Automatic annotation (TrEMBL):
Transmembrane residue ranges: 30-51, 63-89, 142-162, 196-217, 238-259, 271-291
Tree of life domain: Eukaryota
Location(s), subcellular: Membrane
CDD domains, alphabetized: 7tm_classA_rhodopsin-like
Keyword Transmembrane attached: yes
Residue span(s) of domain G-protein coupled receptors family 1 profile: 43-289
Chief localisation class: membrane
GO cellular component: membrane
Keywords in alphabetical order: Membrane, Transmembrane, Transmembrane helix
Name by which UniProt lists this protein: G-protein coupled receptors family 1 profile domain-containing protein
Length: 318
């Protein structure tokens, strides 16, 4: 009898130790995600404030589109962090999760579309410099941004409406928030196909813009400095697009690993892949893009240092 009680106590103690170690690992992952997310949201916020601080930034289409990129990526990071919080606190209903997924899915779709519009703006600036002010106006930039949000929202909003009508447990059933638990197979396939179409279209736009800018840069009559900068900017857009493509491939990679690995190993690997493939590229991409811009970099550093410098930097547009 005493041996049975001792063995039972040892089993309970081992289970308690395993439970506490699992909680500790979860908290460490959550802490890393929180620190990375909020550090880059803070940097994005300062950069966004920098863009609002000067009329020349507010009235220039490429800076307006860059500000839109900052907002879009910050919203995406914030809502992904919200999903992580919900996974640790309690499972939301399908309806609540779908509303959150509308934001995360649409912002993920917006990112490559915004890059396509930014590439077109650079193409017009270099290849049609005399008509740039006429074609790339601030008003048309806002119209393009509205179109980006329309294309980004149409699919997730349709999924939410479909679920609210045809799923009887939509407003009551609690689930782990994610595409694999929320959507039917045909919805996931349609989402992948639609986003694949967007990525192919944006890739063609960037390649077309890049080739034409390179041809202009090689001509004798062109502004070599401006063309060279646009050439490097479009190359950066293409790299950013490849980083955005990770979002589309993430679901396939996770689905494959869920079948091949045990739950504990899968949980750890999923976090690592998410951090390296989804979160860090989303955070670093706008920062790199912003800091390489000479006009923006000086003002950003001024505000990043809490405006301690007595001399406020001027903006030299090229």
């Amino acid at each position: 009898m005493a041996l049975t009680l001792n063995s039972t106590k040892e089993e309970l103690l081992q289970q308690l130790i395993l439970h506490h170690s699992a909680i500790a690992r979860s908290l460490s992952k959550f802490s890393v995600m929180m620190i990375v997310s909020f550090v880059f949201i803070y940097i994005n916020s300062i950069m966004f404030f920098t863009l609002l601080s000067k009329p020349v930034f507010r009235d220039t289409p490429r800076y307006v589109l860059f500000a839109h990129m900052l907002c879009n990526d910050s919203i995406m990071i914030l809502f992904i962090f919200l999903i992580a919080i919900l996974s640790y606190v309690h499972r939301p209903t399908k309806a609540m999760c779908s509303l959150i997924m509308i934001v995360t899915t649409s912002t993920a779709t917006n990112a490559p579309l915004n890059l396509g519009v930014m590439s077109l703006e650079r193409y017009i600036a270099i290849c049609f410099p005399l008509h740039h002010r006429e074609l790339a106006t601030t008003k048309r930039t806002y119209v393009a941004m509205a179109a980006i949000w329309f294309f980004g929202l149409v699919n997730p909003v349709t999924d939410w409406v479909y679920g609210s009508i045809f799923d009887p447990d939509f407003f009551f059933e609690r689930v782990e928030c994610g595409q694999e638990t929320m959507f039917r197979t045909w919805q996931a396939l349609f989402y992948q196909a639609l986003n694949g179409l967007y990525y192919v279209t944006v890739t063609l736009v960037i390649l077309y813009s890049y080739i034409n800018v390179v041809l202009v840069a090689r001509s004798v009559s062109s502004d070599q400095k401006s063309a060279g900068k646009a050439h490097r900017t479009l190359l950066l857009h293409f790299i950013q697009l490849l980083l955005c493509l990770n979002t589309l491939l993430y679901g396939h990679i996770i689905g494959f690993m869920a079948v091949m690995l045990s739950y504990e190993v899968f949980y750890n690997v999923r976090f690592t892949i998410y951090l390296l493939v989804i979160l860090l590229p989303r955070c670093l991409s706008p920062v790199i893009y912003g800091l390489r811009d000479e006009a923006l970099r000086c003002v950003f550093i001024y505000y990043f240092k809490c405006a301690l410098s007595k001399v406020k930097p001027s903006v030299n547009m090229h």
